[in-house]
Amino acid sequence: MNVYDFDGTIFPGDCSIGFGIWCMNRHPVLWLTQFPRTVWAFVQYKRGKIENYQLQCTLFSYLTKVDCGVVGVRLNRQSGLCPKCTELMHLNEEIAFNEILQEEREAATSEAAIAGIRRERDKMRQRNSRMCRKYGLKSRRERGYGES
Q: Per residue in 25-59, pLDDT tens?
């Protein structure tokens, strides 16, 4: 179920800010790692140095860091996660990519799908052949398209 609160009747104020504060209270390490980055991005946005979408990316990047609560570990600059969580993220991406490739391969080699495409092609060839005969046009063979 999706709920949209445009007039503030369900949650007073901006719910994304409220949710961010709730996440930071629940995971205090975010106050040290994410909050300064968010404040800096907001200052940059107000100065006109970054676009709105870049500010939003910075604001909501904490959602990927909520499960990682380590303190004192050097975080990966690109992902903003600890080394373990970064590797876990890469593993999950590879697993998802592998599943997509398998689904595409299965769809490409499906005998039912291939047979359906061949039937559709045969119908179109028959329809085109009838059209050529009806209007006295040359067939594919007579035009030289059928030769290999």
A: 887 777 887 888 889 988 999 999 988 878 887 87
Q: Which string of DSSP letters, residue by residue, matches 123-137?
A: HHHHHHHHHHHHHTP
What residues does each domain of the chain span?
110-141
Sequence-distant (6+) residues with CB within 8 A of 82 are 68, 70, 73, 75, 76
Say what the pTM is. Answer: 0.40
Backbone angles phi, psi at 54, to 5 degrees: -70, -40
Instruction: Please provide the DSSP assignment of 46-97 as one string.
Output: HTTSS-HHHHHHHHHGGGGTTT---SSSPPPTTT-S-HHHHHHHHHHHHHHH
